[in-house]
Amino acid sequence: MTSKEDPEGPDAPARAHRSDRSPWNWLLLVPVVLPLLTFFYNSDSPRLAGFPAFYWMQMLFIPLGVACTVIVYRMTRKRG
Fold first, then answer.
1. pTM
2. Residues paired with residue 76 on neighbouring β-strands, in sequence order
3. How far is it, in rounded angstroms, from Cα 58 to Cα 37?
4. Measured in whole angstroms, how far is the alpha carbon of residue 22 from the centre of its chain?
């Protein structure tokens, strides 16, 4: 048996080809990379409700990550 032959034999059912190569997947990098860019929020001001910028910006990253995930899910799900 060569490496190119199907190990399940010629009568095996064909598997559906799945591709996760949507350009929408690049949007998932935003909630990963943005918190790593500390120069955006490495300061005490501006304060929001008495909280330094670091704390309230960290809290903004949570809904940002959720929004990016929802957008990618809705744009890449299989309709059928």
1. 0.70
2. none
3. 12
4. 12
Range of the domain at 61: 35-76
23 domain residue, yes or no: no
Residue 47 covered by a domain: yes
- The band of 5, judged by pLDDT with boundaries at 50, 70 and 90, is low
Count how many domains the chain has. 1
Q: Is residue 5 part of a domain?
A: no
Is 12:19 a contact under the CB 8 Å cutoff?
no
Task: Specify whether the CB–CB gap between 19 and 63 falls below 8 A.
Answer: no
In the structure encoding, which two tokens stand for residue 48, read together?
A: 């929001």
Q: What is the mean pLDDT of the chain?
A: 85
- Structure letter (DSSP) for residue 61: H
